[in-house]
# Entry
Amino acid sequence: MASLVQEVDSLDIQVIIDNELDPISPAAPDTVQMTGGSMGHVAMSAPRLQPGSRGDAVKELRMDHLCCSAHGLSIMVWLTSIGGEQTATRGDVKRTVLFDTGPEEDVWERNANRLKADVAQVDLIMLSHWHRDHSGGMLKAIKTINQAKQDKAGKGGNVTVDLHPSRPDYRGFLMGDKIISLEADPCFEEITDLGATLSLNDEAHTVLEDMFLISGEIPRETSYEHGVKFGMRYDKADGDWFSDEKIADERFLACNLKGIYISVSLSTAGSPKLTRHPTGKGIVLFTGCSHAGVVNTSRHALKLLNNGGETKVPLHAVVGGYHLATPHDSKQIEPTVKDLKTLDPAVLMPGHCTGWRAKFAIEQHMPGRLVPCTVGTKYLKRQPAMAAAPARAPSLWRFARCPRQPTFTQLRQRRFVHPHEFRPLVPPSPSSLGKATPAKTYPRTRKWLRRLFYVSLATGAIFVVDRQFYASSLTRTTRTFGLGLLVAVDYKINFRPNPPFAASIAAVHQRNAERLSDLLRHNGGLYLKIGQAIAMQSAILPPEFQKMFSRMFDDAPQNSWKDVEKVIKEDFGKSVEDVFGVSFTGDPTKGVMERKARASASVAQVHWARLADGREVAIKIQKREIAAQVEWDLWAFKIVSYIYSKWFDIPFYNLVPFVSERLFLETDFENEAKNGEQMAEFVANEPRLRNRVYIPKVYHELSSKRVMTAEWIEGVRLWDKEALTRPWKGGWHEGSPGSHGTPLDPPDKKLPSREELARKSVASLKIKPERTHWKGWKERGGLGLSLKDVMTTMVDLFSAQMFLWGWVHCDPHPGNIFVRRKPNGKPEIVLIDHGLYIQMTPKFRRQYATFWKALLTLDNKTLKDVVGQWGVNNPDIFASATLMRPYRGGNLSTQKGLEKLSKEERQNRSYEMQQAARKAIREILGDETKWPRELIFIGRNLRIVQGNNQFLGSPVNRLKITATWASRALAESPDMPLSERIRNYAGHVVFRLVLFTSDVVFYFTKIRQMLGLGGGMEDDIEKQMKVMAKDMGVELDQDLFQG
# Structure
């Protein structure tokens, strides 16, 4: 700093936004509630009532005239330098700064209007730091201030905005294992577009004739002020979140208050005379959140305004957020208050993020210095709070606050409300009550019949309302709780070596599996999705439940066409014909659409349509009842899961909120469209997959939260092995219809004519043309593809999702995968249904790649280190569950212990072994707070891909391909240092040599399979896993490996 900040004579502070609003408490010393700030001012400024309309009432207090509190901060600061001996060269100068603008526009505009703030005086808007609760109202504030300046001066206003140049793309914080993002702060272009002058500064500087100082970065000196715990910052350039606990862009505002005291006396002419008494000086500090610590901030202000120690101006006041409210910050309260007491400010005005504990501690240790920072408070400082100040008359504003008392004559003239003589209440005499009559009696049976009638009537009414308006959500939830209680009681009584009410434990499992199966199918909808989610972890359940969950196919009857029309009408506000430009009467100028769904699942159904421009589309429409049922169903799922996990000590409830969140997102088709577009972008940027994988386009203009329109895909489902491998009959260098986004071939038959549409039932008519020319005569041909090429592409795709992109499709069952033939004879995989995805953080993605590489190279030290970070206590069991075969690289303690048991002991200890299986699951989960929730869905992906490979005859070495991608991702990771990448690349070369043994095993099983001496590699893996699971008391069903 070249020179000190100029001294100012007076300071006015008006709080526009704060977390607290207190319109009824009396004003504190040196404060006054402005119009709109207190209940009394609101009442006295209210419109008058018509005389006599409400007795003696004269005005009506309107609650909508009060201000609003909000999580944020915005303060108007006026500084005035009065002309006199010491400031004669400057004259009377008044400058105003708007310090921060609160969290959002509406509350800032409302409070500024209610407080009648003179925003036309604002010369400068200063943002303390880039956080939405301080910048959210900025654009509205700029617009309002510039307009007020124009209205007042008759010409366009041009307020200056002082900002730190380092604006983050997004800020947020870590909550558990989830990153919560805040809204983006206003960008520089938005600010300048409103006519504001931009001033970007990251170093300390003075503004407005050197009356204010704005700091740069605040140094950290104290040991206890650590910043924002778990603060995060997102950089678009890196595409990732980073720790941002310092909030280094925070700055403070400060001024040097001369602290004069004004006395009032009468002149000889009888008019008031003002006399100024210079008494002392002090620094007034304004801080937004004190993320650097309020003590660090105060010390830095003293250093800057005292020019590094050349002067001795004391700290007079600290105004704003002290950031001591959160549990992480509460430990700082005691040392903070202690050091603030050492700094000895006369006024402490904590607000916003300070918290009640810190305010209580300040008042306890520094009584009399705490001043409220509530919305509407105006703080006037024209004299210092010093004991040595001379005796003086009250200042003018104190006279203005004294209410005028009524005279004695006025009191006598007031009308009494109760002019009559007071008489106490006397009970009536018994004679005046008349003759007593006995009470009517009713037979007990009649009472119960009447009650039964009322109960039945109420139950029937609730049932009708629930069915008509809530899609039977209450009925479904009641059914769930009832059956859940029945199953829980059954297990509590009968889960023991010799069940009292069942032939065996297996019989108990069987009847409860059937009960749950009936419940899921009867409730339908999202319950089928919940059944599939439980099926991901069905290995921890008895075999009776595994068989039940393996039949949880995602199919359901389709909704009526009327329901389809209602969903489209509710989402778009128009009819089906208007939204998609189709006609059901054969209008040649419009498109056509099938009313009968081509596919129907638990949540949605798909209709084919051809638009007027010739595009063939698949229209996915959510079933109408899902929107009403989804929150009820997930709530019931959470409650039942919580009760079961506690009652039966099954460690899975911590996974339930994450599963519920994924299921809820699966009902949001806008989210599905975004997932699909993101995956298409990833594929397009990866040369190794660009020409082998295709993601259908989504047409956003024809989509909503419950309706998604995408291009129609002509292809062969993965489960149709014969169609994949039969000889190609479509011609040389020809591809199957629509391969890699090429326009679909003309149909083999024309669309139905207007007469046909009129003659046939449109609801049952299939309009979509079939394209089967590539199958040849009698449709005996196929795509002529190599199953090895098909499966290699599939494993490559899902491995890249896990290890390169961290964006994993978690429902890759054969129904969601189409296969097409390209003109060069190679397969093309088309991936649909992008509703269920998980995102892996870069750290977890690298950990998972390291884990897979260690699995295949039997690197036990690395394996134990990685799974230890995930809270897993038994690396062997977890590695076996991931490989879906016994892991041979650990200490084998689990397997050796199981092998010691004889066959007879294993059979006779069913109950004990099932208890041991639960213990093994708890060892896998270990510390549930560390266990990555994403592993649930990644495991589902791996199992389904393994089942697909097994179904096609194990044409590829899936484990080798997956591990190779893991090692390659570590070598190619762009966010690693170059030296580490070189080391990983060298390790990748060695790793490829190590995997040669895996190829030997694979080709051995392949030759044996060709000779008819056994199944493929995946069949061997399944057998090994079944044996190990059975040794642990778990019987795995065949369908578990089919995904």
